[in-house]
Q: What sequence folds into this?
């Protein structure tokens, strides 16, 4: 304990010296006087003998001062003050350095924060690592939800899992909610009674849902409570109206809990048992999340459940479902479709950002090395006076750490802005992504770690290099320009930056070209001027009520001004969903073998192909007269015609599909329905009127010219007139929907392009710095050359060639780096690139050309300055 | 800081602490020169303390609360800073003495055994 007391006293002593220097000195002087008096008995000069025996005042004072405070701390304080002064003395350098660091660290933090929220961070629930998500994987790689009966069956198996809960975001995702007469939209989901208990979520106010809940009760999220109820503590017992039903609020969940799907913040949670419309027994609509038992591993639980599913699947009519397998994926992030989608682009971007950070460090290291040249004299003096090299390195490192800290602070603030921008980019063409990307401990720790690492990377080398210089030459103030080692370090730094830049530019070029190629793909339809309007009819609403509504809206929409054609469609291209059916068989022909290709189908309204701009290759489009009284007809896609009717004319032939026999009345061009990357699926189209039940469909409205968006208010008015009880329809331009299917590619191309530009600017600054310093250093030499007859143009050319040399060195070094990176990431790239090889020549040439351009731009100003050197003035410069 | 294993410098300092505490406890308040003179005398000239060693050591003891100091007048009408032991210092001295004697006994036994073996 006494040593703790000592430490505290000494800590205080660094701020405020306990005993003053004068006091200490006096004590020492007294000691020496007494000693001198004693020595005087034997020695003539008592004073000198005393000092010889007992020590001099100065070194003793040093020892005392060290004991009085904490020397390490005092050194640190002094270093910091010194560093701050040095930074203030060179404001431009400091500003540039801090800005560069802010960009590098900020962008890194932004991407990390986003990646963390989307891909890494577990749900804010109890022990998320024990959660699992059940998925059905179909033979073609699709996934399906579960039926109510399957869910109940699997949930009853208590050996495999500790518990299983079901949840379902309400169809249409956004529902209209009325509170005290005011309508607003909110995200809602239905859950099984044990949902909150399984997740381990406890109510902040009131209670969470339980298995006994059969009445229409609801639990709201903290955010919703603040937003719609202003955090009213008496919210329990109030009601909200949703889908024409009144729900009583029984609880509020804690802040941070948003449901089980990252990217969607669920506002209202209600029990499945309280739903009004009964779902058809074979409707697949439930998602399942479970919790592992402590004594059962994920593999064991999966094996047990798979066996049970195989038994359940045997009774499934649809072959795709019957052949699907049950998988247990990690549920630590819940049902993370967002993570699935963006995991790879975000990882790629994180890597690119790390490369930019390396470039930033190389840049700053080069700047610091160049600057240390000016301080060589000062450092040499300190070394010769006895300062340890480690001490000086520590002091120089303090400057680096301070610069990095300033950059880190600015960068973290900048990172927030960048995160919002990237989120907006990710959300285009779909419902907004809601993520909690506020600064949390993880992100801040990351930022701090990155800052320190950066400081070490760019600060250590220059600091050590500064101390290694020979003393005698540095002590004399010589004409600048003799230490070639340091200058080649600076140039090597810049060449390294260029090498890394090559890597970034090549990848950015590849992503940009991929996006361009995808955009140019002929998807088989013309999306311009088409509006996709989703009219929510309520869950599970089928039958005549829905059909009447659709007919009414069809007539109303068609009558609006500027409308060229209107149609209906169950699934729209690149809308994310496509219904499948069993195979096709031709009556009179033997059925296909077991490996019949999967055929997809769409149920569409009249003039569908005209509205969508899909060319009709033979036959005709559906029309109003293709209704329940007319003979059953179907339209097939070109690939179906070629596969099933090789060479023969399919028109008029009969085809059997999903238990229905219809005659082919038209053949249309293939459409890339699911994705622009994959080939068009085999498609068969049926008219909506001839289907037994009208499926939930979207309206497609093509206008003659201009933007159909202008029609939206009119559409809403018509919908309200036709069905006042229903929430307003939502609309999206088909072009936006198509663009939305390319969101990962767009994000990669845009962000990697921005990163490439950032890196290019940094490299340009680096090249400029080195070349400008070279010109300044060699002023005398250039002056001499010009005095003996060299022309200004030649001098300028020399400078530019110098810049090109560095850039070329960087290019050459960058080639193996890029090759290694491309090889390491080749599986990744194979998934991202479209009809492009990583060694695509135009991209490589463009990257090389860009670098040479950057080098020449960076060298322009110094070259001009070199050509303008006045020989007389240069020769006088010392 | 507490609970750290003492390194060599600490051991030497620890020994110095013990010597100073003993001197001051036995002879009452002493100024720095008197302490150094006493230690030199007792060790018959073997222990010659430099000012740069003695005074930081005294400051340390003061910071740890084991001695207290005050300016006073010596017999020769000189102003000097006198150090006296505190209660905590006495406790520490007793503990260090016990430890020292324990170590000495062990060493003695070991060396005797060596001689006999």
A:
């Amino acid at each position: 304990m006494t040593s703790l007391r000592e430490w505290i006293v000494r800590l205080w002593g660094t701020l405020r010296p306990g005993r003053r220097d004068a006091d200490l000195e006096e004590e020492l002087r007294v000691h020496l006087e007494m000693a001198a008096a004693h020595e005087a008995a034997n020695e003539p000069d008592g004073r000198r003998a005393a000092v010889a025996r007992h020590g001099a005042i100065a070194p003793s004072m040093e020892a005392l001062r060290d004991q009085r405070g904490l020397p390490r701390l005092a050194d640190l304080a002094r270093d910091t003050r010194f560093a701050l002064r040095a930074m203030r003395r060179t404001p431009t350098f400091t500003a540039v350095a801090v800005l560069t660091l802010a960009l590098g660290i900020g962008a890194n933090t932004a991407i990390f924060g986003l990646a963390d929220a989307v891909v890494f961070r577990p749900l804010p629930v109890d022990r998320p690592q024990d959660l699992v998500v059940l998925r059905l994987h179909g033979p073609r790689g699709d996934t399906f939800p579960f039926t109510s009966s399957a869910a109940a069956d699997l949930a009853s198996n208590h050996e495999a899992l500790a518990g299983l809960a079901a949840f379902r975001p309400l169809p249409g995702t956004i529902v209209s909610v009325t509170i005290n007469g005011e309508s607003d939209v909110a995200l809602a989901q239905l859950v099984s009674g044990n949902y909150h208990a399984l997740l381990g979520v406890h109510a902040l106010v009131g209670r969470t849902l339980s298995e006994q809940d059969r009445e229409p009760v609801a639990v709201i999220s903290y955010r919703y409570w603040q937003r719609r109820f202003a955090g009213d503590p008496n919210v329990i017992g109030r009601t909200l109206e949703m889908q024409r039903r009144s729900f009583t609020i029984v609880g509020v969940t804690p802040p941070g809990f948003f449901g089980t799907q990252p990217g969607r913040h669920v506002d209202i949670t209600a029990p499945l048992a309280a739903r009004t419309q009964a779902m058809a027994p074979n409707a697949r609509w439930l998602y399942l999340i479970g919790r592992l038992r402590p004594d059962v591993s994920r593999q064991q639980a999966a094996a047990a459940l798979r066996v049970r599913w195989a038994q359940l699947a045997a009774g499934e009519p649809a072959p795709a479902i019957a052949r699907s397998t049950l998988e247990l994926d990690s549920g630590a992030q819940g049902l993370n479709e967002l993570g699935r989608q963006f995991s790879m682009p975000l990882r790629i971007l994180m890597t690119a950002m790390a490369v930019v950070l390396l470039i930033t460090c190389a840049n700053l290291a080069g700047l610091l090395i160049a600057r240390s040249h000016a301080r060589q004299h000062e450092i040499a003096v300190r070394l010769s006076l006895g300062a340890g090299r480690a001490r000086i390195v520590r002091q120089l490192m303090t400057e680096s750490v301070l610069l990095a800290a300033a950059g880190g602070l600015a960068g973290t603030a900048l990172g927030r802005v960048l995160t919002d921008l990237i989120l907006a980019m990710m959300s285009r063409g779909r419902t907004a992504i809601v993520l909690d990307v506020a600064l949390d401990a993880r992100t801040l720790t990351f930022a701090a770690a990155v800052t320190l690492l950066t400081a070490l990377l760019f600060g250590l080398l220059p600091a050590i290099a500064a101390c290694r210089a020979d003393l005698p030459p540095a002590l004399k103030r010589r004409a600048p320009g003799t230490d070639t080692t340091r200058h080649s370090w600076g140039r090597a730094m810049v060449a390294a930056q260029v090498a890394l830049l090559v890597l970034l530019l090549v990848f950015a070029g590849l992503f940009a070209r991929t996006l361009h190629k995808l955009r140019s793909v002929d998807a088989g339809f013309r999306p311009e001027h088409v509006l996709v309007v989703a009219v929510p009819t309520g869950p599970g609403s089928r039958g005549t009520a829905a059909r009447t509504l659709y007919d009414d809206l069809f007539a109303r929409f068609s009558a609006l001004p500027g409308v060229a054609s209107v149609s209906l469609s169950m699934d729209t291209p690149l809308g994310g969903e496509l219904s499948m059916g069993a195979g096709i068989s031709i009556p009179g022909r033997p059925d296909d073998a077991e490996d019949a290709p999967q055929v997809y189908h769409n149920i569409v309204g009249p003039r569908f192909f005209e509205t969508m701009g899909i060319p009709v290759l033979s036959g005709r489009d559906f029309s109003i007269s293709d209704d329940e009284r007319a003979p059953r007809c179907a339209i097939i896609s070109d690939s179906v015609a070629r596969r099933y009717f090789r060479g023969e004319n399919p028109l008029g032939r009969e085809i059997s599909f999903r238990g229905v026999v219809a005659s082919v009345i038209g053949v249309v061009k293939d459409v890339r329905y699911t994705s622009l990357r994959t080939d068009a699926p085999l498609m068969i189209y049926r008219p909506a009127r001839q289907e037994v039940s009208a499926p939930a469909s979207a309206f497609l409205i093509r206008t003659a010219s201009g933007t159909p968006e202008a029609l939206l208010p009119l559409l809403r008015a018509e919908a309200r007139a036709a069905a006042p009880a229903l929430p307003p329809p939502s609309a999206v331009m088909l072009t936006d929907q198509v663009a939305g299917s390319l969101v990962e590619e767009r994000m990669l191309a845009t962000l990697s392009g921005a990163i490439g530009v950032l890196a290019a600017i940094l490299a340009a600054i680096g090249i400029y710095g080195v070349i400008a310093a070279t010109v300044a250093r060699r002023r005398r030499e250039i002056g001499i050359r010009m005095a003996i007859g060299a022309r200004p143009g030649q001098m300028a050319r020399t400078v530019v060639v110098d810049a090109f040399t560095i850039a070329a060195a960087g290019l050459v070094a960058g080639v193996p780096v890029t090759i290694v990176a491309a090889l390491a990431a080749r599986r990744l790239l194979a998934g991202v690139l479209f009809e492009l090889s990583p060694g695509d020549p135009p991209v490589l040439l463009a990257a090389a050309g860009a670098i040479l351009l950057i080098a020449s731009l960076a060298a322009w100003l110094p070259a001009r300055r070199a050509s303008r050197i006045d020989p007389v003035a240069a020769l006088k410069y010392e | 800081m507490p609970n750290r294993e003492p390194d060599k410098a600490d051991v030497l300092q620890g020994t110095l602490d013990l010597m100073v505490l003993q001197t001051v406890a036995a002879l009452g308040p002493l100024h720095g020169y008197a302490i150094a003179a006493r230690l030199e005398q007792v060790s018959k000239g073997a222990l010659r303390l430099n000012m740069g060693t003695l005074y930081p050591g005294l400051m340390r003891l003061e910071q740890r609360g084991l001695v207290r100091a005050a300016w006073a007048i010596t017999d020769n009408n000189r102003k000097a800073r006198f150090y006296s032991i505190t209660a905590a210092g006495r406790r520490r001295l007793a503990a260090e003495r016990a430890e020292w004697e324990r170590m000495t006994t062990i060493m003695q036994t070991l060396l005797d055994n060596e001689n006999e073996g």
Observations:
- Residues 128-332 of chain A form one domain.
- The CA atoms of residues 603 and 686 of chain A lie 5 Å apart.
